[in-house]
Amino acid sequence: MDKIALVVGSSGIAGSNLAEKLISRGWETYGLARRPNIENKELKPVAADLMDLDSLRKALAEVRPTHVYITTWMRNETEAENIRVNGLMVRNLLSVLSEGKSVEHVALVTGLKHYLGPFEAYAKEGFLPETPLREEHPRLDLENFYYAQEDEVYAAAERDGFTWSIHRPHTVIGMAVGNAMNMGTTLAVYASICKETGRKFIWPGSSAQWNGISDVTDAGVLAEHLIWASTTDVARNEAFNIVNGDVFRWSRLWKRLAGYFDVAPVGFDGQIHPLELTMANDGEIWKQIAEKYKLKENSLSRLATAWHTDLDLGRPIEVMTDMSKSRKMGFTVFQDTEEAFYNLFEKLKRENLIP
């Protein structure tokens, strides 16, 4: 076997889905995380702390990956600290792997904050890019930990001679417990609470998002894109947007999602209703729901990330991304977005995470 993968962040939405696809294609696959995914018995777990060089050296001493997929990050209080911590994690990882001289390609997953700005200035007036978002858009004149991560990859590639790819998804839809950015599961949990309590399914975001055109990225599509770019000569040393390939309006999809859960939808009513406030006191309600239906996870904070869903749905502009670059190079995978949500909801039910 000539392909050995190291999936960094293998417990997350992007990493767990990628690991499954790599294994299904016969790749020897290692999954690195502080608490590795042990549900996939064919994934070889690597427990390590990316902030600790000694921990990494011990954990990776016998691992010689040809392909490295970085799908993780750590949230901090300020963007300056995001830059320091997330840049250091990538630097530590690649410096330790450099000692083994096995790496042929490194793929880094970032996202649309590359174009929209960091959390502290996210999609604010003065920083709004032209849409559809295109890879050639210049970096913003702002601190951004995505830029720091990219620069660490570029520097290591120059030093060690591997190729690289950068992947910028828009709101990854997939299943993972404890993930920091998880709109699909957040909406499923919110709708389940509305169903159980008789509350209405109230749109939490802005007028621009409600009425505008949008797109998202299914975790399976992102996984296919990562494998494609890392094994296709023409796609190497390039940055790519990656979304499902269709567009939608939340004004339609919100009603469709409400129909799936049999709850009453309420659209944009002239003001924003942040989920972080709406769900602020729902922790105890979720514990009661989990006990009633014998669900696997009774901690609301392990499933719902209202703060990040609010960032996405509260933006003052419509946001969609251009996929021309990947299409021209031969990537043709497509996923219907409405079906992506339904597929996730069905999986959450099968895994006993929602009623």
How would you describe this structure to a colleague?
The protein has helices spanning 13-24, 53-59, 79-98, 113-116, 145-160, 183-197, 207-211, 219-231, 250-261, 275-278, 283-293, 300-303, 306-313, 324-328, 337-350, and strands at 4-8, 28-33, 44-47, 67-70, 105-109, 163-169, 172-173, 201-202, 213-214, 217-218, 238-242, 248-249, 265-266. Strands 3-2-1-4-5-6-11 form a seven-stranded parallel sheet, with helices on both faces. A two-stranded parallel ribbon has the order 7-10. The chain is α/β, with parallel strands linked by helices. The N and C termini lie far apart (42 Å). The chain contains 15 helices and 13 strands.
Number of separate helices: 15
Strand content: 5-15%
Q: Architecture of the largest domain, according to CATH? A: 3-Layer(aba) Sandwich
The largest β sheet comes out as: 7 strands, parallel
Highest CATH level, the class of the largest domain: Alpha Beta
- What is the alpha-carbon Rg in Å? 20 Å
Shape: globular
Tally of discrete structural domains: 2
Q: What is this entry, summarized?
A:
The protein has 355 residues and is α/β, with parallel strands linked by helices.
